[in-house]
Write a structure and sequence with these properties.
alpha+beta
Amino acid sequence: MSKILRIRKGLDIRLKGEAEKVLVQADPAKVIAIKPTDFHGLVPKVLVKPGDKVTAGSPLFADKYNERVLFTSPVSGEVADVVRGEKRRVLEVRVLADATTRYEDFGSGDPSGMNRETVIQKLLKSGAWPVLRQRPFDLVADPGQEPKSIFVSAFDDEGIVTGQGTCGLEFVEDAPDLDALIIPIGGGGLIAGSAIAAKALKPDIRIFGVEAAMYPSFTARRAGEPPKCSGQTIAEGIAIKAVGEIPFALGNPLIEDVLVVDEADFEQAVAFYATVEKTVVEGAGAGGLAALLRYPERFKGMKVGLVVCGGNIDPRILAMVLNRELVREHRLVTFRIVGDDRPGMMAGMTAVIGKMGGNIIDIHHNRLALDVPVKGAEYDIQVETRDDDHAEEIGKALEKKGYVLKQP
């Protein structure tokens, strides 16, 4: 019985040496298959039969319900077969390719000098029209309809990926001694374009991606698993449930690893940018620094470039992040004191805190805590301190005066 091995993140085969880095020109495919099943909702009308001679651009089949839409051969040669499945459904048309491709001549023209109908006719006749898709069902567009708008993906598009490559170019040009780039991943356009450009100029530069733990779509795609994405994250800019097909195909071979970070890491990075760099950065934009703070050992001794890819953060969220970071650093501490509910009690506690240099931000007086005697109360005193040591000093001073501290 065969044994099934499930592999995650690759298998270390422990081979000595490394593969020779040689590019070879592969032989062109001898048989080309064009599949109607690649086009959603298409019912094809086959226009050729086995033995027919075709050139690149010759129609092989058309849309049965809109015969203006043609699907043409990408090569010249001879139709080898029309493969059919159940109920004679056309699965693919196979063409035995010539050694040298001959092309159909559709004439040339300047689109800027043509009217709309002439451009449409050129696209229909040449077989280029089927690349235009109609949302939301990804159908081949109807040439008889005028679109209300044109959709361009913000990441799943070759042009977008190409444009994002300027980020990688600028990094390598401005800092040629960089060892690595850490780039946030949402749809994947930024990291794919940057990786291609950076490695073209500096092949040994290492590329790392960053994803939010709530939206690890690239990581899941790499592992061959369906992505499990949900929840409210501060990194909204990279909260994408499915990485783009084009960016993944282009970027995946160039990315060394994808680092998954938690919400606290993003918050800390946003706070550091604001307080240290005096720069307002959104959660997604701070992903590179978040990964660096979460995995410092991965980048020890390296010169690393961080991509700050956005500053669109709500002022209220920014304020909350900064206050939460003060809590993490114990510069904003809540002392919960259990004591008698009598006049002068609060004055005594605040006097101790003031004498120790603590700045009182807020006080909550709770008489309804059930684990406190009926004649007692809980006092939650929020205090601004210099650091962890200062907070500890205030706590010890309160205990020395006889106050009972309780974990908030």
